[in-house]
Amino acid sequence: MIFKYLLQLGDNALILGHRLGEWCGHAPELEIDMALTNIALDLTGQARNLFQRAAEIEGKGRTEDDIAYLRDAWDFRNVLLVEQPNEDFAFTIVRQFFFDTFNYYAHQELTKSKDEWLAGFAAKSLKEITYHLRFSSEWMLRLGDGTELSHQKLQTALDELWMYHGELVQPNEVDLELAKSGVGVDLEKIKPLFNEKIEEVLSKATLNIPTDTWMQSGGKDGKHSEHLGYILADMQFLQRAYPGVEW
Fold this sequence. Notes:
Layout: H1 2-21, H2 30-58, H3 64-69, H4 89-110, H5 116-144, H6 148-165, H7 173-180, H8 187-204, H9 226-235, H10 237-241
Helix pairs in contact: 1-2, 2-5, 4-5, 4-6, 4-8, 5-6
């Protein structure tokens, strides 16, 4: 079961890292370009560590590259939020803010995991994740409480992505079992902190908080949007076209 849990964590980081990497050379400003690319590198590095550990636990001779590049879409366990398109900078920031908020509180809890490796990984990653949350929170405030146009764009992004944020703290069977054993995060425990932080930042950003309580879900159980297929076609092409290729 811990193998599946590592995939959930790793797939979130890998897919969001890929999405952020799409901004490289295309961001609104050079400083933002560098920041988004660095966050993408952080997430990809975290995914690699998680996949390495997953491969060790699985014991079937696979590597982190096999897990990343040789699985089909239905074998991925990331939440639907992280595979949503960048659209524009406002969409990217809202998506990032939702994920960073969850990731911060989740890794805070993981530092207390009964699994020594997971606890150590979380403590190390939390330093990067703290910066990620600060970056996305500050941009939520700048855009939300900025110009009329930036406010409008951010509100549109918030309204459209709102239905995906709830899955982050909605436990599936893997989450429940690992939380019960003290290895994984109790999502019900961090949910109030997650919601409180989101409401705090949205309020300061002068944004209208959507009232819809219905949320998309299924990503953690392998049910994805069409967007993931396109991501994997791009990300996995080289490895599948030239198996075992080395630079």
